[in-house]
Amino acid sequence: MADPQLIALDWGSTRLRAFLLGAGGEVLLSRQSDAGASTLSGTEAFEQALATLVGDWRTAQPALPLLACGMVGSQHGWREAPYVACPADATELAARAPQVHERLYIIPGLVDDIATPDVMRGEETQIFGALALHPELAGDACLVLPGTHSKWARVAAGRVTGFATHMTGELFALLRQHSVLARLMPADGSSPASPEAFVQGVDAAREDGGLAHQLFAVRTLGLFKQLAPEQLPDYLSGLLIGHEIAGELKRAPQRLALVGDPALCARYAQALARFGQPAPLLLDNTAPAGLWRLAQTMKLI
Amino acid sequence: MADPQLIALDWGSTRLRAFLLGAGGEVLLSRQSDAGASTLSGTEAFEQALATLVGDWRTAQPALPLLACGMVGSQHGWREAPYVACPADATELAARAPQVHERLYIIPGLVDDIATPDVMRGEETQIFGALALHPELAGDACLVLPGTHSKWARVAAGRVTGFATHMTGELFALLRQHSVLARLMPADGSSPASPEAFVQGVDAAREDGGLAHQLFAVRTLGLFKQLAPEQLPDYLSGLLIGHEIAGELKRAPQRLALVGDPALCARYAQALARFGQPAPLLLDNTAPAGLWRLAQTMKLI
Prior knowledge:
homodimer; alpha/beta; Nucleotidyltransferase, domain 5; six-stranded mixed sheet; globular; 2-dehydro-3-deoxygalactonokinase (chains A, B); DGOK_N (chains A, B); DGOK (chains A, B); DGOK_C (chains A, B)
């Protein structure tokens, strides 16, 4: 294999993703495992999880540096990397990355503590990856990273100036699995997507009727057969994503970019269109690019 | 015992509450059991649950009429009592109460289907009980019935003209038990109340930052030790109740009355005061008064 330069680790709560990066930052190889940070406890467990996944890469090239981001740097991770306060750029993050051992560093998360504190771990790296791939975003943009805890991060002059988390994905999972709404829906994963119901949910959110009120409509639309059982999950998804977008669009409009899982980003793009927003830039996994960019800043490569 | 006139049954999803009412509608005796409608299936199961709880009352006075409200009248209850559309008054509800057997009737629920449908079963009876006890509310008021699914019902000229459900109590339970927020909180029921944290949550909701966003602050306020673990449930409660109130107060202001569990109503009253609202009328369980009023309308007594 040609010239590996860095082992990049996107080490979240539930997954460990490893990328072997080449001289241009390109992904030569990638692997993943279930050894998320929340499943591990103690230095040895983290060492072992890393050895299991990429021990052969390290044996083949013992001098390769490793750079990690995500919950591996939390209080309960391998080594705590204290949050860096916004506004922050890649240089500040890189300067505050603790060294775990001779060749391994962990990128710290960000805290926005202007008012009520908000935090991210891992997304900051995806953001700097997105800015590395699309420098035109670095001037003034809002990067949206949908997920269990969606992040809306404002970027200006190459720095993350602030951000807000929305528990949209977690609320969806809770309501889909445990609430009174779940009883009217087919078992999880068994229903085909209903784009119409998704749009209907987004449009309901645009009317801004109060989330806890509008959620109850998922039940009544099912009870009165205005939506079929298999449409209800998508209506719920549209309602939740719509409320997230409605809340964020109250700020001054900015150029938007969506970063993350393509299917989920496509949903957000569809919902944004219902709000009359121009089509956002869509970016897939930018964690390897972010780790590459930060490793350059740290002169690890 | 002096002169019983009616067996009033408040038969919800999880509880069956029975009241033996005297000649003035006063409660002579009351009992309850876990034989909620959601735990029973088939006519015999309902018959049996009723016999177990109040069989002796019926044996002593076989001619006593019985009137029930709540989920006992749902699709999956003893006998379906189809929803009556708003606006509706006590006479309309009484006229549409199906007869289950010679002496037993079930009060139907209400549907507000002007826009997205909304439904209630049981609360309509509490509302007409409140209006019977406080006729001054019947002209123009909003009755708030806090709970798992809180109801805000608008009343004018003796009719319920419309209402909205908020899944506030259910969201609290889901987030308290199953979410990432729960991990920072003490086990359920083990923490003393924190009125300060409750008010802080209400005040956060008044800023209207988007519910799914503000929920994440429950986590970060705990992470950064701005609130103690035992304060987080009350902050969460204040946030959810505050959002419910903020959404409803966007309508034209009306005279408010709180109906239901005194401890929960006291929380709502405290939150309403933070919104600058005058002290609402507080009413405890009004289901017996409502069933008495409807039984009079039906000439059962």
